[in-house]
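Researcher: Here's the sequence for the chain we discussed earlier.
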Amino acid sequence: MHNLKDIPLERSCSLIHQDEWGVCIIDKSPGVLSHPNKVQNPEKKQRTLLNSKFSSVDECYEWTTDQGELKRFHLCHRLDSATSGIIVGCLNKELAVSIREAFKKREVQKTYMAITSGYLKSKRGTWKDSLVEKKINGKLRVCKGNGQAAITKFQKIRNNAGKLNLQLLELQPVTGRTHQLRVQCMLRNIPISGDNTYGDFSTNRLIAKTTKVKRLCLHASKIEFEIKHLGEIISINLEAPFPRLMGRILL
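Model: Thanks. This is the structure I predict for it:
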């Protein structure tokens, strides 16, 4: 097994699973990029999942240990920088390819927790929307239109939570469209708290003033999948702790 000390994790993130196959599950903090972005100012410091070089061609982080050994951490999927929670990587290239393929084939079950404002009448169900991506003032935005289908299963976990009368939802995206959960919540007038792109800005200001919490309240809380590798079945079924700051909003 690879040693935790060999992986140069961003200090606010934590490794919550690592196995003999090299599968690594990381609990990512909000504000941390899954991988470096291209920036106009190369001197601008970016908080990334690992503190090392990233190869966009191979989709992996690379670093050299104190013993001079080259190591690679292959990213299997991504989270928006503002979203916290589970992100999967692998120290084995071949296995990483298989995991990425499982994500593409929708064989990975992902669960998110979201705090939203507004009111959702139904306790559970499925959302289906057609979404399109657009560039507005040079920034990527997603809206309803004649595009790819976005499908999400939802369940209301807690209603009228705390002084701010918010909701706690469990969301399971069936598809993996850009900004899918954030946009689908916005389309139903239940924007995710702290969303500075698709959210309710007056509610965001009230939450920040009342709780001193300024973050997108969307957390990748659970992941489940099975992969066959070298004749063995690798089963992953893990949860990441509910963020303390999101819990403060619900009090």
